[in-house]
Amino acid sequence: MSMDIKQIQDLIKFVAKSGVNEVAIEEKDFKITIKTNQEPTFVTATVPTAAPVVAATPIVATTAAPATPVATEDTSKFITVKSPMIGTFYRAAGPGKPNFINVGDEISVGKVLCIVEAMKLFNEIESEVSGKIVKILIDDAKPVEYDQPLFLVDPS
Question: Domains in the chain, please, with CATH?
Answer without folding.
Answer: 5-60 (no CATH), 76-154 (2.40.50.100)
